[in-house]
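Please complete every field before forwarding. Incomplete forms are returned to the sender.

SECTION A: IDENTIFIERS
Entry label: holo-269
Bound molecule: coenzyme A
Molecule representation: SMILES string

SECTION B: INPUTS
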Amino acid sequence: MSTITVELPDESAVLVRKFADSEGVTVSDFARSAILEKIEDSFDLQELHEAISEDNGERFSIDEVLEELLARPNHRGVFYRPERQNLQELTGKAAEAHFEALYSKGTMTSLTTERLALRPPHDGDEDAVFSIHSDPRTYQHRPELAMKNRDEAFELLAAWQRNWAEDGIGYFVVFREPAEIIGFTGLRFSEEQGQKVLNLYYRFAPEAQGRGYAAEAAAAAIDWARQTHPERPVVAIIDPSNAPSARLAEKLGLHLQTADHEQGHLYRR
Ligand SMILES: CC(C)(COP(=O)(O)OP(=O)(O)OC[C@H]1O[C@@H](n2cnc3c(N)ncnc32)[C@H](O)[C@@H]1OP(=O)(O)O)[C@@H](O)C(=O)NCCC(=O)NCCS
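SECTION C: PREDICTED COMPLEX
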């Protein structure tokens, strides 16, 4: 620490001591923070003056700013959202505006049911993706497929986001109000036996299973997808030993079409 001596008129010195006392700090602490704040303020002011002098009068709307941010793919090739770093900078209102812009453009859709809310996945969902997909109870029939590390969750989330960005349809994150993520369900574009189809997916947290949530959420997703893509049949490929999944598919109106699909039984509606 260096010592700087400040000379003050007696009256001002009394004032400084009184003020420091009332703030509960030493005169030295008070003087140090006051001087540094003053310097910081003048740097800010200098930057503001420079920005004003360089202003060429061009103005951008919030949509243009968002477009500029959205136009860049992130390191995983996802186009429709800002880079992770930018998203962190886009806090509060700006982040809300970003998602609102996507919803209002019709790029993304959210759904509600009696007990649940469904929305497309976005940054920050990787914890829920990992926790549900790494739980061996959600892969009882294919334990080797359970996630081992968080990178896999980031990759899966990016792939889901890409589906929405490219096709305007994909898998939803399912919430039980107010904000608990209980699972994932939805449909994405796929091809089976040369035909364009909607592939149905569902995976729910073990704690949330057995209460009809999966059926409620998947039914809403199917209804919406059928309205937007009536020409595409809905299919699900199910491991023959996965009784809950097969039962759920049937409950949703799908029927076993072929038992010799390379990845399991093919259900269709
Ligand atoms: C498949 C899954 C989403 C079903 O979730 P869920 O919470 O049991 O679903 P619901 O409560 O909506 O119940 C759906 C139907 O399945 C039935 N079901 C649930 N567990 C069952 C079981 N072990 N055996 C037979 N039927 C079962 C329910 O009884 C219900 O039918 P009902 O209304 O006629 O009684 C859930 O088991 C899961 O996430 N599994 C792991 C992921 C997975 O296997 N995904 C499918 C990949 S192909």
